[in-house]
Amino acid sequence: MSTAEESGRDAIVRAARRAFTLRPYAEVTLRGIAADAGVSPSLIVKRFGSKEGLFNTVADFQPAADALFAAEPAALGRHLVLTMVRLRDELRGDPLLRVVFSLGIDDERTLLRERFREQVTARLAALLAGADPELRAELIAGQLLGLGATLSLHRPDGAGTRTRPGRLADLYAPGLQGLIDGGAGRHDPREPVSVGG
Amino acid sequence: MSTAEESGRDAIVRAARRAFTLRPYAEVTLRGIAADAGVSPSLIVKRFGSKEGLFNTVADFQPAADALFAAEPAALGRHLVLTMVRLRDELRGDPLLRVVFSLGIDDERTLLRERFREQVTARLAALLAGADPELRAELIAGQLLGLGATLSLHRPDGAGTRTRPGRLADLYAPGLQGLIDGGAGRHDPREPVSVGG
Fold this sequence. Notes:
mainly alpha
């Protein structure tokens, strides 16, 4: 794929994210997304097939979940922070936060929330040993969403923006790792910990 | 104030929150807010004076910050979780989360983010002893926003919704308290901890 094609695709996806996040599904048009992205509506049809196809691409949390959850539970807290920072950098945007934007409007896009619950929370719960895995998965998802939210809110000159990822992980991973381990929260984030408890 | 007057005021504030979160400031009208709230535009003028007055009411994080930060640092982590849950219940909505919704749109409502940074993050940083108070305040704000986000996302039948506040605090407070103490994260959340680190 050429660089121009890449950037056309990226522009469409970004415009679609904005549109589906800010407007009821029924009000979103491919023509509007095309205008926002600076491409022709026919290019969107060629690439994504339909409005539904485009929504499904934009609402898919699975690639982010694949990357975020690719670590053993004992090392997952730190991995989550470092992966989150890397994904935000690569995507020039947050991989999860659009589900929170969608809370502002009640409409069909509860579909976005259902996807999130399936692809992020339920998948995470299945990885957790110990008591209350669903509850702990919800709280871990909350801390991940909160990390992205605070980095975005305090851009461009916030302290988090100026901090190297390793230091962010030193500070933010212990809370996550405590929830992964079972909520005990007694460990040094820089050392491996045993699972469960 | 009568119960009817109370509920009229609440309806106006809720409608105004929706409007200012979802639309550019210039596009929001008192007429639209009045229609959404089921009151007359003149009632809004009588109560709030103007669109700007209403925006200032809706964009004010100070009452929430007053409640959230009313504990000694050694007990603040647990207090933050319990207060957050109580405020969400009392307000029938989240006291902070609208600043995250506002990230979906670029416009004058960066004002909302500036308020948040002043009234929540900067105030919190001033309460923290130890290294990197601004960074730790941003991460604490992130965990608070994340708690509200995940409780809202997993409504109405999520595990967090069915869990008593004390258990939520057992699980979620250690990460907050670690950031308050300086990021060490080595303590039992159910026992007092020393400040600094």
